[in-house]
Each structure stands twice: as structure tokens, then as C-alpha cells.
Amino acid sequence: MNFVIDGALGASWSLAFPDGALELLYPWLLLLWPLPLLLTRFAPPHRSRFEAIHVPLFTAIAGATGSTPSPGAVVLRRGWPERIFGLAAWTLLLLALARPQWVDPPVERIEPGRDLLLAVDISQSMAERDFAGLDGKPAERLSAIKQVLDGFIAGRTGDRIGLIVFGDGAYLHVPLTLDHALLRRQLGELQVGLAGPRTRIGDALGLAVKLLDESQAKHKLVIVLSDGNDTGSKVPPATAASMARQRGVTLHAVAIGDPRTRGNEAVQRATLQELARLGGGRFALGTDQRQLETIYAQLDALEQRDFKTLSYRARHALFHWPLGAALALFLLGHLTAALGVVHAHWRERRATANGAPA
After folding, report:
1. What is the distance between the alpha carbons of residues 83 and 89, in angstroms, rounded to a whole number?
2. Could you tell me if 218 and 306 are in contact, meaning their C-beta atoms sit under 8 angstroms apart?
3. Helices 269-278 and 237-246: crossing angle, nearest 10°?
């Protein structure tokens, strides 16, 4: 629990707790607390003129008797209960005027400045084991992608990242999100062939551009991870890449697999190089896991993080509590005084009835 004075006199005071803080917006008003005591001590009593008993010919009678009339005055004194109630009510009223409030712990919100879509090829050709893992043994292309992308995503704090998978068609697997833990979990569950055996890169790029059209981010990026062997896209890959550049989307392409592989699983470097050129991005060839990690490190340096962290603290007004307590004490003080008067009258009437002096 810490007591903090924010700035000079007149600034707020706060009392910090583990789960928040109690703050006074106008603490200088508490300096008025001695005012009732000073008025009681130094200010003259309030005067109220009235005739207690009307005596006809009062002045003539006083002159005949040789008396000199003088004004009479009675200073009413309050009892200790009334003083205590009044001082407590005054203290609570000052607390209410000082505007106490409870301040919640800060809530941070990341405002992303970059939206990034990962377009991952999960066609049948991604099952080819021509990728050298860290242990030197052949690894499945998709498995290598998942391992390296996991670390890449973990390092992109503040970026909204989405995941598109494509095969016979292109599908949004994870929308743009700051929940990178969810994205990494969904990435780890990908399997070859879930979207069909073919590779429609152009359709994946068209879907990415359409999704990023709705984005308000300053920077929009797409990274395509594929062997580049496009088979029957409805949108030609070159057309989709040019459209991405026109819409302000930067396109990077990463070729996965051994260029020496032949047949239907061959790596089409030229296709992906052309996509990166038309999309205003970079092309990289990943032949093994170490090289792929180097490629992502270069992309991470190229596409620096760009985000703002906003902090918000909810404030809850508390002035109504001391104000209500002050009103209750004020009423209680008047009730106590009224009961005292009633009790005094009752004692006087009882003493009169018994023939004894009050």
C-alpha cells in the first residue's frame, strides 16, 4: 500500500493497493477541515432579536424605579453529541467534495499497425520428404514449415496474423488475430491433403487480397509458403500478385523443397520469384530447416514490428458514500437534539406533577 502525491498542491492524491488505488481529485479541500473550529473560537455568535416578554410602559417603570435597562443576550451552547455529529458530518462532506474514486489496475490494449496473412500450401506435394531437418534426416515439407512458422509467429508481438490454407481451393483457417497462441495451435494441427491434392496459389492470393481490403492497418503483408506448382487456379497467380500490389499489399514468397526434386512434386522457383517481384516483396528458397529459419529471420528484420500499446484505467466515483453518510449524521444529530428537548419537557412536566422543582 503506497501513498502518492501527484504533482503540486491541488493535484490528485492516491493510495495504492495491490488491486487498484484510492484517489482524491481535489485533496486541497481537506485543508478546510479546521474551519468550523476556527469559527466557533473566533467568530462572534449569531444574534437574533426578539421580545421575550412584552411589558407595557416598560421605559416609564424603569425610570420610576431608577433602573437602567440593558440588552439581554443568551448564548446557546451545543452538547457534545451535537458537536461530534456536526464535526463528523463536516469531515464526510469535505471527503465527498474532494471527489474520491477507485481506480482499477491498468488494462493494456495493443493497437496493431500491421496485418499479416500466412498462405500455407497443404496440397499433396507438401508431403514430399526432400527437406533436410535439423538432425539431417529427410523431413516432410509441411512439418518443416510448421516448426519454423511457430517461432516466427511467437516473435511477431503486436501484429495481427491470419492463416490461409490452400489446395484444391483456398480457405481462411484463422482470421486476423492478436491471439497468437490460438494461431500456433491451429497451425500445428494442419495436415497434408486436408484441402485437396492440387495447388491453387492464385486463388489463395485472391482470397488474401480480398480479406486485407477490409483491413485498416498501415501495412498489409502476405507470405506465401509453397513449392510453387500451381495447378488450375481460377485466378492466375501473376494476376493476383499484381492486384495485391495495386491494393497496397506486399507479397513475399518462400519456396519449400529441394530444387533437384523432379516430377509432380518439383519446386517451381520461377513461379514464386515472379509472384514476389509483382507483389513488391522478397523471394527466398528454403532447402533445409536451417536455411528456412534464416529466411524467416531476414523477413522478421525486413518487416519490423509496428504497433502501439494503449493503457486504460477504469475509474469509479465514490463521492456518494461520504455524502450519504454526512446526510445521515446530520439527520441523526437533529434527531438527537429533538429527543433531548422532548426528554427535558417530559422531565419538567413530571417534576411539576410531583410538586417538585424541575
Report:
1. 10
2. yes
3. 20
Average pLDDT over residues 267-289: 83
Q: Could you give the CA distance from residue 15 to residue 37 in angstroms, rounded to a whole number? A: 28
Q: Is the pLDDT of residue 255 over 90?
A: no
Contact 16, 2 (CB under 8 A): yes
Domains of the chain (ranges, CATH numbers): 2-43+76-105+314-353 (no CATH), 109-310 (3.40.50.410)
Residue with cell 491434392: 197
Q: Give the residue-averaged pLDDT of 273-301.
A: 78
Instruction: Give the distance from CA 253 to its chain's centroid.
Output: 37
Q: Where are the beta strands (DSSP E) in 227-304?
A: 249-256, 283-286
Burial of 162 (0-12, 13-18, 19+ CB in 10 A): buried
Whole-number Å distance between alpha carbons of 233 and 41: 94
Classified as helix, coil or strand, 342 is helix
pLDDT given at position 265: 61
Handedness of CA 312, 313, 316, 318 (dihedral sign): negative
CB-CB contact of 290 with 139 (8 Å): no
